[in-house]
């Protein structure tokens, strides 16, 4: 739980800050209104938001109203693919599915060769700063030398790509969790990625491995690959059926429903994926029949139901990918809209794509999982 910091200037302006508790970070009293002003425009909606309440000259009443709204905001916090809140009655976390605007989702379109050159030294630097990364990479490198002899790999597939997959699939350590935590939150801004994202080389190698293994070409509408994913302790909830969402991380799934159920049942996903890649032959645990889905694939929620205290979510690929980042390590800043990642050729703006998805402002709002009544949006 984030601490609230209260500031009471010598004026009628009262401020509440809850930086990571919600996207609205400053609340002011102005002419009988509560005025929400973004402290960090990149993390908030564009422009002020007004919350209308009854005018009052009583400071105590104003402070009470401010506290009520602020505390209601505190029951949510952002984490990559949506808003989370903890449900003590069920002992689980509820997470709202969204387009995950804070995800670091670079697909390296048009710069993969330059990144291949830079990633070699970048990996060495990052391993020097991260003991678990170095140990995991060195262990996977030895295992890769034994595994690669029996594999048929696509043109351009390098040892680093295979090692990255083995690092990710080795669940005997927690590195894959650390990577996905960084991916879910590392796309807050370009500066955040450059200064605080500790797995730049690993992210590139893993992304590139999936692209090379999948190959080019689009997806036919039907059939698409059906895979399954079980999750412990988190109830994933869409705002509504028909929503467009991204999973916002490298997402493990399985072709075997029984295997997937063994990983958890708080939420059980059935997915039709276009860009998920079978990595069984390269995995540390081939018996899991894993299909790895990249962070940028866009899905549509086709069904949602509850079975007791379990969430059942059905997703179908939109046959599209979108990213806020492209070639970020080479200096390209975060784009305000989630632009379609080309299967071949140049990217198209999200607003021009087949899905006709929402504007940047709405993409951010969609990730909250709640709406403040009367907000003038």
TrEMBL record:
PANTHER family: ADP-RIBOSYLTRANSFERASE (PTHR10339), ECTO-ADP-RIBOSYLTRANSFERASE 5 (PTHR10339:SF2)
UniProt keyword annotation of DNA repair present: no
Protein name: NAD(P)(+)--arginine ADP-ribosyltransferase
Keyword tags: Disulfide bond, Glycosyltransferase, NAD, NADP, Nucleotidyltransferase, Signal, Transferase
GO molecular function, one term: nucleotidyltransferase activity
Domain of life: Eukaryota
Organism encoding this protein: Bison bison bison
Family from the record: Belongs to the Arg-specific ADP-ribosyltransferase family.
PROSITE patterns documented for this protein: ART, TR_MART
E.C. numbers: 2.4.2.31
InterPro entries in the record: ADP-ribosyltransferase_ARG, ART
Gene3D superfamilies associated with the record: Toxin ADP-ribosyltransferase, Chain A, domain 1
Pfam families: ART
Catalytic activity field: L-arginyl-[protein] + NAD(+) = N(omega)-(ADP-D-ribosyl)-L-arginyl-[protein] + nicotinamide + H(+)
């Amino acid at each position: 739980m984030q601490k609230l910091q209260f500031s009471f200037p010598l004026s009628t302006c009262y401020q509440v800050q809850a930086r990571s508790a919600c996207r609205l970070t400053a609340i002011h009293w102005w002419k009988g209104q509560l005025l929400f002003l973004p402290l960090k425009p990149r993390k908030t909606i564009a422009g002020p938001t007004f919350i209308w309440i009854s005018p009052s000259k009583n400071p105590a009443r104003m402070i009470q109203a401010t506290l009520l709204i602020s505390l209601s905001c505190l029951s949510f916090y952002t984490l990559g693919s949506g808003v989370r809140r903890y449900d003590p009655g069920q002992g689980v976390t509820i997470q709202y599915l969204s387009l995950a605007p804070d995800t670091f989702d670079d697909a390296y379109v048009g710069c993969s060769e330059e990144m291949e050159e830079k990633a070699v030294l970048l990996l060495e630097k990052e391993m020097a700063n991260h003991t678990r990364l170095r140990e995991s990479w060195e262990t996977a490198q030895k295992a890769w030398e034994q595994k690669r002899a029996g594999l048929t790999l696509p043109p351009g597939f390098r040892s680093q790509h295979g090692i990255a997959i083995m690092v990710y699939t080795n669940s005997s350590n927690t590195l894959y969790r650390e990577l996905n935590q960084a991916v879910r939150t590392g796309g807050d801004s370009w500066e955040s990625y450059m200064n605080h994202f500790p797995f730049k080389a690993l992210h590139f190698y893993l992304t590139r491995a999936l692209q090379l293994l999948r190959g080019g070409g689009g997806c036919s509408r039907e059939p698409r690959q059906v895979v399954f994913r079980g999750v412990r302790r988190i109830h994933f909830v869409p705002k509504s059926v028909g929503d467009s969402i991204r999973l916002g991380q490298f997402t493990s799934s399985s072709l075997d429903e029984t295997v997937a159920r063994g990983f958890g049942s708080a939420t059980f996903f059935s997915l039709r994926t276009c860009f998920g890649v079978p990595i069984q032959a390269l995995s540390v645990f081939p018996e899991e029949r894993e299909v790895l889905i990249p962070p940028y694939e866009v899905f549509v929620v086709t069904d949602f139901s509850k079975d007791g205290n379990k969430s059942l979510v059905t997703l179908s690929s939109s046959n599209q990918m979108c990213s806020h980042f492209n070639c970020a390590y080479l200096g390209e800043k975060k784009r305000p809209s989630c632009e379609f990642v080309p299967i071949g050729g140049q990217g198209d703006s999200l607003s021009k794509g087949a899905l006709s998805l929402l504007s940047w402002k709405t993409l951010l709002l969609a990730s909250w999982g709640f709406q403040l009544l009367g907000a003038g949006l």
